[in-house]
Specification:
about 425 residues; alpha+beta; 10-stranded mixed beta sheet; 3-stranded mixed beta sheet; 13 helices; 13 strands; about 40% helix; globular
Length: about 425
């Protein structure tokens, strides 16, 4: 982490010396003897460090890393931009560009959900380099939405085409293999497909609130046999002696999120789910600031003991299911914490959608969720690879559309009377 604080000079966290030494070794600089004192040069230093880590040096394997910049009032004070010095204005432009088009470099395909391992495998078999690539998405989260963050008053399509043109030019200049926008808005995919970008159609399970009065009203949409199964699974909570508690924002204490973290680690260990991406420091930051207000936890408790929990995020009337775990394997606990309780909360709170991750197992569709199309676009710089992938995507799109249609046709929900 890099700071530009009241000392009037750039400083790094406890790993700062190692950062500077790594950059010096890779680029022949001397930052270890004295870090730059202005923010613009600090951004350059950070960029060099990222590139060294992404590309790998010597026997080091390429890595994917994240960089957070804490920009204080000293660097970007309140007030008109024209009152800033030219150096700070230039730095501000850099930061605004990063915010407007949140691209970051990847040296692997983990945590993307729109997985391209078979593309990488094809490229490798044919001697074509596939990494590093530029990626725009919500990190480690299958959340669809605009990839262009635009202030009011700008023409959306023109801004999108201009920024992606710059992203493509920078990618080619920096020796990247391509630019990928995952889970982007449909209008963004439409516009970029017209510009020759590759387009990929996928789908994820989503529950939609049909203005249900309560959970029983939702259950009435199921056929008798399926409704009986769900009621039996709901009764398992009582048979296990469990009570489900819903916590949000300031109601979540350190004991609560540490329990969720332990359950998350156990789930990753048992099933590989999530691959333990989120480290302890990440959990502390998630529950230590304003972002905490978006978190919703569903705890299964026996007395004061928490035996299981699911971790969701609410924003804009949608509830996004992310992680779950438990201290023991209890019958139907997963179904209750990952599906039924979030759906019940959405009905009571008036939220419109519940998203259940990205995996398209029949388990999710048997519980009243239906497929929701998702879109991504890709610009691969190697023409041979791009041509081969384009041919594959044409057939893949037809198969995906058929799968979506079949899932909807066999929906577990009856039409409302």
């Amino acid at each position: 982490m890099a700071f530009d604080g009241a000392s009037g000079r750039v400083r790094f966290d406890v790993n700062g010396d190692r950062v500077a030494e790594a950059v010096d070794a890779a680029h022949g600089t001397a930052y270890a003897k004295g870090l730059p004192r202005d923010a613009r040069r600090a951004l350059y230093l950070i960029d060099r460090y990222i590139r060294a880590r992404i590309e790998g040096r010597g026997k080091q394997r390429p890595k994917s890393i994240a960089v957070v910049i804490d920009y204080t009032q000293l660097v970007c004070p309140e007030g008109p931009v024209n009152q800033l010095g030219l150096e700070l204005q230039a730095t501000l432009v850099t930061l605004l560009r990063w915010a407007s088009e949140p691209l970051y470099l990847k040296a692997d395909g983990r945590g993307e959900f729109i997985y391209d391992y078979h593309w990488y495998g094809f490229a490798r078999r044919h001697g074509i380099r596939y990494y590093p690539k530029a990626l725009a998405m919500s990190p480690y989260s299958p959340v669809a939405g605009p990839r262009l963050l635009l202030a009011p008053g700008y023409e959306r399509r023109a801004a999108l085409l201009a920024l992606t043109e710059v992203a493509e030019a920078l990618g080619r200049e920096q020796g990247l293999t391509g630019v990928h926008l995952l889970f982007c808005a449909e209008d963004e995919a439409d516009a970029l497909e017209e510009q020759g970008w590759l387009r990929r159609l996928t789908y994820q399970p989503r529950w939609e609130n049909a203005d249900y009065e309560d959970f029983a009203d939702f259950l009435a949409r199921f056929r008798h046999k399926d409704r009986v199964k769900i009621k039996r699974q709901r009764r398992k909570l009582e048979e296990h002696g469990l009570e489900v508690v819903r916590l949000r924002g300031e109601e979540i204490g350190e004991r609560d999120w540490r329990a969720m973290h332990a359950f998350y680690q156990r789930t990753c260990l048992l099933y590989g789910t999530g691959s333990d991406y989120l480290k302890p420091a990440t959990w502390e930051s998630l529950f230590g600031g304003a972002w905490k207000e978006r978190v919703v936890l569903f705890q299964a408790k026996r007395g004061d003991e928490v035996l299981g929990c699911s971790f969701c995020v609410e924003k804009g009337g949608s509830l996004y299911g992310r992680y779950w775990g438990s201290a023991a394997d209890l019958d139907s606990l997963y179904f209750n914490l990952a599906f039924y309780e979030p759906i019940r909360a959405a009905i009571e709170e008036g939220w419109r959608y519940v998203y259940a991750g990205f995996g398209n197992s029949s388990t999710k569709y048997r519980r009243g969720l239906d497929p929701c199309p998702t879109h991504s676009v890709h610009r691969l710089f190697d023409e041979d690879l791009s041509r081969a992938i384009r041919a594959h995507l044409e057939e893949d799109r037809r198969e995906t559309e058929e799968s979506i249609g079949a899932q909807r046709e066999h929906s577990k929900l009856k039409p409302r009377e």
